[in-house]
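Subject: Protein record for review, amino acid sequence with backbone structure tokens
How to read it: Take the token row as a discrete description of the fold.
Enclosed: The protein record, placed directly beneath this head.
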Amino acid sequence: MLFGKKNTAVLRIGGMHCEKCSGKVAAALKELGVKADVDLKLGRANVTYPAKVEMSAIINAVTALGFTCDEIK
């Protein structure tokens, strides 16, 4: 469970082709303490994360897997 201030965001993720891809994204974000609802069909993830986690770290975790990622404003 996340304690303290939480932030939310929607991420656009490119390059996911299967459930395994979306599972990898969710797992990588979970390691950062980020709760992610990854939608393979839409190529998006709704994320909830502690204030201490920077958006750049979230994006870097996804791009390190070989996917593109940016925050939808």
